[in-house]
Amino acid sequence: MTARILDGKAVGARLRAGLGERVAGLSFRPGLRVVRVGDDPASVVYVRSKDRAAKEAGFDSETILLPEDVPESELLATVRRLNADPAVDGILVQLPLPKHIDPQKVLEAVDPAKDVDGFHPVNAGRLAAGLPGLVPCTPKGVMHLLAEAGVKLSGARAVVLGRSAIVGRPMAALLLAADATVTMLHSRSRDIAEECRRAEVLVAAVGRAGIVRGDWIAPGAVVVDVGINRTAEGKLTGDVEFEAARERAGWITPVPGGVGPMTIACLLENTLEAALARRGRAELEPNGGVAEAHATPEQSYGHGPGLA
Ligand SMILES: Nc1nc(=O)c2c([nH]1)NC[C@@H]1CN(c3ccc(C(=O)N[C@@H](CCC(=O)O)C(=O)O)cc3)C=[N+]21
Asked: Which positions make up the signal peptide (predicted)?
């Protein structure tokens, strides 16, 4: 079998076009502010893509540039100014930050209602608890791709490789909310290859080129590669041995052109959701509204025996 390609570039473009139509129908422009500190070359590229995508879809987007040696206090003051600015619906502080700045302190300074990255502990906690909130863009984008492939997640064996706060953990929470049976694998896990071979849905978010071997893929599995690694020759490559995995998988995301473009589309989706919620025009949904998690009786607190 040769896998079908889950084309994040195309799906992301469609999602952005739909958001553009919704924004065009509003009496205001949702405001996005991306803060970039210093000139990390990857950050320069990513932040430019975000700004361009936002403007194309009709958002009021501005990038705020601060010097590499900006004091932490000044970055925090910038975030507070954006929190207080009514024209601003979404705030994103691009990571990584210079070493003299504590990223956690900065992420926690962002108003959770404007936290379009979904990185504030309030939003992370709400996702973990199955409550409405802003959901991190990359795992949200993965859920869109799985929906696009028509994957039935309820009861499916899903494996998430990697337990980062920005991808692995929220990814597992979203899959669980969609009623998948979720296994998280990480640096201390045993029998990783065997665990992966049991996966009907495999999400790789480690950040090591080719760490997922082709023979770890179950026949017909849906393989989502979140890794973005740069080879010695400067080419982008994922965490999955793409060519070998493609021979076994049912669906697979390429790198580039897979999850990356979905991340940017979901940033715009979150900004629109935050803008509507802040104006009382819509409620935030559990799981970013991507996966329709249906609370089964045994999941409700205190209702008799059963697995939760
Ligand atoms: N506060 C914060 N939020 C983020 O969401 C965030 C961040 N910091 N820091 C860095 C990572 C990385 N990230 C990507 C977004 C788009 C692509 C993307 O569109 N990639 C293209 C290729 C881009 C290229 O050619 O370099 C693709 O995969 O096809 C990749 C990576 C967001 N991040």
From this structure: none
**Catalytic residue (one of 94, 114, 179, 239):** 94
Number of CB atoms found within 10 A of residue 206's CB: 23
The low-confidence residues of the chain, meaning pLDDT below 70, are: 292-308
CA atoms within 13 A of residue 78's CA, in its CB half-sphere: 21
Given ligand 1 and candidates 11, 34, 43, 46, which is best to mutate, with the most ligand atoms within 8 Å of its CB?
Answer: 46
Question: Is 104 assigned a catalytic role?
Answer: no
Q: How many Cβ atoms from other residues are within 10 Å of residue 85's Cβ? A: 13
Ligand 1 center from residue 52 Cα (angstroms)? 13
Say what percent of the chain tops pLDDT 70: 94
Question: Ligand 1 centre and the CA of 49: distance in Å?
Answer: 9
Positive or negative, the Cα torsion across 258, 264, 267, 272?
negative
Residue 292 is predicted with a pLDDT of 59
Q: Which residues, at least 6 apart from 162, have a Cβ–Cβ distance to it below 8 Å?
A: 168, 185, 186, 204, 205, 206, 207, 226
Instruction: Report how far residue 64's alpha carbon sits from residue 33's, in angstroms, rounded to the nearest whole number.
Output: 7
207 Cβ inside 6 Å of ligand 1: no
Q: What domains sit in the chain, N to C, each tagged with a CATH number? A: 26-111 (3.40.50.10860), 137-260 (3.40.50.720)
Tens digits of per-residue pLDDT, 217-247? 999 999 999 999 999 999 999 999 999 999 9
Report pLDDT for 307. 62
* Rounded distance from Cα 79 to ligand 1 centre (Å): 21
Tokens of 187: 């640096």
- 294, exposed or middle or buried, with CB in 10 Å at 0-12, 13-18, 19+? exposed
Helix, coil or strand: residue 224: strand
Q: Is 99 among the residues known to form the active site?
A: no
